[in-house]
Write a structure and sequence with these properties.
The chain has about 250 residues and is of the alpha/beta class. The chain contains 7 helices and 7 strands, in the order βαβαβαβαβααβαβ.
């Protein structure tokens, strides 16, 4: 099974300044893709990701901006067109995952999560569509989440947003697959990512999986890379779970 066949393709990985997004950028670069490293503001993290991408022999571009802001989004895609002139892969990874009891949640809290996790995914995908349609063999990967399928306390807004991503994936697959654009969702769970002490998911402490360990960002990235490769082009509209069997335990 040859997945190292992406030479010359261009991939935009949103939220790729750290953790799963960074691992995806590196995995796609290893396949031969040139990478647009995106972050909202974290230039230092984006530069670190860019160095890892370049170490794989790929070209890279850093593009910073708020994906829910139409003006910033227009600038980002202008940079991609100017620098690479094409886009073949879009990975919608950027997201926020705050935890807050529903009774304490304000509508502003709700909208902030929806803005990043749902609205920005719509806007980014819509802005990317023209370039993706020109590719001939394009792929969209939306990054979901385990709790969209299992539920969890203190995450009503996050769970709702990630459930919406599953529906978004299925709808897009129906519309875009006939145009040669495969659309799938990869849903990570219990992944050992770097977070500050105040941002660690509380539900992780009570969750287990069948393999009795936390996953690595690179394991999520390999699933994404497979779906983006020639070997994955008979798969569309699916949600692929990468969680060590946590969905079953």
């Amino acid at each position: 099974m040859n997945t190292r066949n992406q030479q010359g393709k261009v991939a935009l990985v949103t939220g790729s300044s750290k953790n799963i997004g960074r691992a995806i950028a590196v995995a796609l670069a290893r396949q031969g893709c040139n990478i647009v490293v995106h972050a909202a503001q974290n230039r230092q993290g984006a530069e670190a990701s860019l160095k890892l991408v370049q170490a794989e022999g790929a070209q890279g571009l850093i593009s910073l901006g708020d994906l829910s802001d139409s003006a910033q989004l227009e600038r980002i895609f202008s940079e991609i067109k100017e620098h690479f002139g094409r886009l073949d892969i879009l990975v919608n990874n950027a997201a926020v995952r705050p935890e807050l009891p529903f009774a304490e949640m304000t509508y502003a809290d709700w909208r902030q999560v929806m803005s990043v996790n749902v609205d920005a995914v719509f806007q980014t995908t819509h802005a990317a569509l023209e370039l993706l349609q020109q590719s001939g063999q394009a792929t969209i990967i939306n990054i979901g989440g385990l709790t969209a399928h299992t539920g969890a306390a203190n995450r009503v807004h996050v769970i709702t947003s990630k459930s919406a991503i599953v529906g978004f994936t299925r709808g897009l697959a129906h519309e875009l697959s006939p145009q040669g654009i495969m659309v799938n969702c990869v849903s990570p769970g219990l992944i050992d990512t770097v977070r500050d002490e105040n941002n660690r998911p509380q539900h992780h402490a009570s969750r287990s999986n069948l393999v009795n360990r936390r996953g690595r960002p690179e394991e999520v990235a390999e699933a994404v890379a497979y779906l983006c490769s020639e070997s994955g082009r008979y798969i569309t509209g699916q949600t692929i779970h990468v969680n060590g069997g946590a969905y079953l335990s």
